[in-house]
């Protein structure tokens, strides 16, 4: 249903969840569940996640939320062996796929989890990402998550939430726990 409008969403807004604290993906998952529960057509997209770390993807799919995972686009911080040119190529392919989804205009809410990291880690330029964002369907709500949102992304956003790490068990050598941190 292209051009679908629900609850007066004539103009979709842009949300950014950024910062060094826990909860960016969790907030985006929560928004996706809320939107779906209200009948919004929702797409949840992940970058930079290891294949087995996105357990929320399975649950979101069960709830009727469309999902895409671009496992090929990995964090150069955790995978320094991967050539940046190949990461950029994979990111460009992902953006092309997403532009196609934008053109089809089948979603009321689109989440791009860890999208901000594409810029923060130097895979895509700030200009490329702001240009990409400008092509979202006008009525669609767009959520971007990830550490290190640059000023250009913050400027185009309608909502900006900064998750700040005040205290975290990693400081006490506690490893990430399945179902809590990932």
In short:
With 182 residues, the chain is an alpha/beta fold.
Written overview of the protein:
It is a single chain. This protein has helices spanning 24-37, 55-62, 84-104, 116-120, 126-133, 151-156; strands at 14-18, 42-47, 66-70, 109-113, 141-145, 159-162. It starts with 13 loop residues before the first strand and ends in a 20-residue tail after the last strand. It has a single domain, classed as 3-Layer(aba) Sandwich (Rossmann fold). It is built from six helices and six strands, in the order βαβαβαβααβαβ. It is of the alpha/beta class and 182 residues long. The mean pLDDT is 87.
Radius of gyration, whole Å: 16 Å
Topology pattern, helix = H, strand = E = EHEHEHEHHEHE
Count helical runs: 6
Q: Report the span from N to C terminus.
A: 34 Å
- Going by helix content, strand content and strand pairing, the class is alpha/beta
Helix proportion range: 25-40%
Shape: globular
Indicate the multimeric state.
Answer: single chain
The main pleated sheet reads as: 6 strands, parallel
Strand tally is: 6
What is the domain tally? 1
* Regions with little confidence, pLDDT below 50 for 5+ residues: none
In CATH, what is the class? Alpha Beta
What are the SSEs and their pairings?
Layout: E1 14-18, H1 24-37, E2 42-47, H2 55-62, E3 66-70, H3 84-104, E4 109-113, H4 116-120, H5 126-133, E5 141-145, H6 151-156, E6 159-162
Parallel strand pairs: 1-5, 1-6, 2-3, 2-4, 4-5
Q: What descriptive keywords fit this protein?
A:
single chain; 182 residues; alpha/beta; Rossmann fold; six-stranded parallel sheet; 6 helices; 34% helix; globular
């Amino acid at each position: 249903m292209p051009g679908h409008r629900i609850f007066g969403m004539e103009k979709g807004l842009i949300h950014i969840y950024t910062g060094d604290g826990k909860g960016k993906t969790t907030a985006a998952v929560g928004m996706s569940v809320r939107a779906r529960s209200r009948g919004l057509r929702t797409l949840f997209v992940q970058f930079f996640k290891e294949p087995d770390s996105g357990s929320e993807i399975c649950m979101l799919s069960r709830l009727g939320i469309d999902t895409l995972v671009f496992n090929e686009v990995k964090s150069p911080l955790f995978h320094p062996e991967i050539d940046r040119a190949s990461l950029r190529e994979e990111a460009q392919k992902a953006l092309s796929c997403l532009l196609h989804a934008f053109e089809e205009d089948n979603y009321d809410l689109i989440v791009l989890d860890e999208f901000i990291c594409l810029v923060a880690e130097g895979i895509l330029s700030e200009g490329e990402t702001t240009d990409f964002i400008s092509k979202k369907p006008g009525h669609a709500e767009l959520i971007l998550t990830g550490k290190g949102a640059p000023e250009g992304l913050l400027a185009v956003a309608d909502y900006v939430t900064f998750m700040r790490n005040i205290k975290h068990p990693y400081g006490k050598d506690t490893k990430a726990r399945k179902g809590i941190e990932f």
